[in-house]
Automatic annotation (TrEMBL):
Molecular function via GO: 8-oxo-7,8-dihydroguanosine triphosphate pyrophosphatase activity; dATP diphosphatase activity; metal ion binding
UniProt name for this protein: Oxidized purine nucleoside triphosphate hydrolase
Keyword terms, alphabetized: Hydrolase, Magnesium, Metal-binding
Cofactor(s) listed: Mg(2+)
InterPro entries noted in UniProt: 8ODP (IPR003563), NUDIX_hydrolase-like_dom_sf (IPR015797), NUDIX_hydrolase_dom (IPR000086)
GO CC terms: cytoplasm
EC number from the UniProt entry: 3.6.1.56
Protein's UniProt keywords contain Magnesium: yes
Signal peptide start-end: none
GO BP annotations listed: DNA protection
Length: 161
């Protein structure tokens, strides 16, 4: 959903047999980084249907039973001006249909939970993704200047699951 500079987005982490499915993003913002599967919610979609569509488009799988794990806010500044604000809903999926395949946007790769390549990921991920993968819900607010992290706040959502 694009309200000018405000975006509603999704991120899905598929976890199965002690591994998490990440993508290596091939283009756009964050290209070259490993990330969960996701993108912008489009007009007429709800957040869950967008999360499912992005999984199908990016890696050809359909997640089952998405569990909502939290909300992240990414505020990107250019000097003192807000360039864009991204509200990102994070989900876990413990099962899926289909077989992960590469697309023009993403290459899917499984990582052991202890082998997640945080130094090739967005800087904030190490502050909240371990909590999500330990089944904790999170709320995070991050400020960036030209997409370099300058401020962070992370909370576990209480009551937890
Ligand atoms: N893990 C993580 N994900 C982030 C961070 N910042 C950020 O925008 N993302 C995610 C949220 C969205 O899932 C994704 C945005 O991807 P995108 O702009 O390519 O969206 P899209 O697939 O709809 O692409 P497009 O059609 O606009 O090209 O990146 C971050 O700091 N950490």
């Amino acid at each position: 959903m694009n309200y000018g500079m405000i975006f509603i987005e999704t991120l899905v982490y598929v976890v199965k047999e002690g591994k998490v499915l990440l993508i290596r993003k091939k283009r756009g913002l964050g290209a070259g980084y490993y990330n969960g599967i996701g993108g912008k919610v489009e007009d007429g979609e709800n957040v869950v249907s967008a999360a499912i569509r992005e999984c199908r488009e990016e890696v050809g799988i359909t997640p089952r039973n998405l569990e909502w794990m939290g909300l992240l806010e990414f505020w990107n500044y250019e000097d003192d001006r807000v360039e864009s604000v991204h509200f990102v809903h994070v989900f876990l999926a413990r099962d899926f249909d289909g077989t992960p395949r590469e697309s023009s946007e993403a290459e899917p790769i499984w990582f052991g939970i202890d082998e997640i390549p945080y130094n090739n990921m967005w800087e904030d991920d190490i502050m909240w993704l371990p909590k999500v993968l330990s089944d904790k819900r999170v709320y995070g607010r991050f400020e960036f200047d030209r997409w370099r992290l300058i401020k962070s706040e992370v909370y576990e959502v209480i009551p937890s699951k």
